[in-house]
Amino acid sequence: MDRLHLHPRRRRSTALHHDPGRRLPARRQPRRRRGRVPPVGTPRPLLRTLTPIATVPPMTVARPLWLLLLLIPLAACGPKAPTDALDNARNAVDGAADSSRCAEAEFRAAESLLRQAEEAYENRDFARARQLAEAAEVQAARARRVAEENLEDCERVESATFDTVDDADDDHDRGWAIDDASLDRYTLGPVHFAFDSYAIEEEARAILDQHAQWLEDNADRRVIIQGHTDDRGSSEYNLALGERRARAVRTYLDRLGIAEERMTIISFGMEMPVGTHDENRRVDFVLRQ
Q1: How far is residue 216's CA from residue 210's CA, in Å, rounded to a whole number?
Q2: What pLDDT score was predicted for residue 237?
Q3: Class of 188-289 per CATH?
Q4: Which pairs count as long-range contacts for 39-46, CB under 8 Å and 24+ apart, including other chains?
Q5: What is the β-pairing status of strands 282-288 and 191-192?
Q6: How would you classify the pairing of strands 222-228 and 191-192?
Q7: Sheet holding 222-228, edge to edge
Q8: What are 12-52's pLDDT values in tens digits?
């Protein structure tokens, strides 16, 4: 058997490492990982030192511009012409025409509101025209309701009026003259209110006390109590405020002994001014036989 010849492992010579004339390769700098702070003194790029204020997607900037372009024609159009509201108001007022016999004041208020709505429409004040038209429709419905409630009393008054006319004709045929000077000329003056209030103040109470005395002495007379306001506020609000003022006056007279069925209330709101704001905040009285 052949003998194995084992050669001892040669040891690498270290002579080169100790050779002073051999240039050693430059030592590589370790690779810097992301996110780690660079060594002190290392210059940083300018763009990397700036922190962005906000990252805005491109469509986010463009969207308000598109919305603005869409809203411009809508703003130019303005309020829509209230032709539907005017038609409804005209139909309501026409349908309540029969109520003028037993609810004259209420029906007259509906006609006034409709007329002013049409005027506002002609002046292209569409927002006010719609408010007035809707108020006229509500007032026409109120006139019909009041006429139904007063139907029995209305027919009785008309019957008594016809009898009085027949008697007057008979008296005229017999040569009897009617003395106009004997007819009562008493009128019930208005009472006024503070701004945005329906409280009856002391001066108004003194006037109402006199009216109550006259109505008590003339039990055959009926009275229409009309509430009014100045022109500050919406039509709907002022109609409601005028009605509250009329109701407050009716309640006061009722406490003084005037039967409630002799008094009819109605509100004209700001639609029948007579002067300044102070003068318009009032309640008027209209006497009926």
Answers
A1: 10
A2: 87
A3: alpha beta
A4: none
A5: antiparallel
A6: unpaired
A7: 191-192, 282-288, 222-228, 263-269
A8: 555 445 555 555 555 665 565 555 555 655 555 554 555 55
Three-state DSSP state, 160: helix
Residue of 144, 154, 151, 142 whose CA lies nearest to 269 = 142
Cβ proximity of 214 and 186 under 8 Å: yes
- Tell me the per-residue pLDDT of 183-209, one tens digit each, with 9 for 90 and over: 344 578 899 999 999 999 999 999 999
User: What end-to-end distance do the CA atoms of the chain give, in Å?
Assistant: 159
CA distances from 161 to 158, 164, 181, 288 (A): 5, 5, 20, 12
Mapping DSSP onto H, E and C, the string for 88-137 reads HHHHHHHHCHHHHCCCHHHHHHHHHHHHHHHHHHHCCCHHHHHHHHHHHH
The pLDDT assigned to 6 comes to 53
Chain position carrying tokens 């009128």: 187
Residue 288 sits at the vertex; the CA angle it makes with 285 and 289, to the nearest 5 degrees, is 150
Q: How many CB atoms lie within 10 A of CB 225?
A: 24
Q: How far is CA 22 from CA 12, 25, 27, in A?
A: 17, 9, 15
Is pLDDT larger for residue 276 or for residue 42? 276
Q: How far apart are CA 17 and CA 138, in angstroms?
A: 113
Helices 126-149 & 151-173 angle (0-180, nearest 10): 70
- Using alpha carbons, select from 105, 109, 165, 108 the residue that is nearest to residue 286: 105
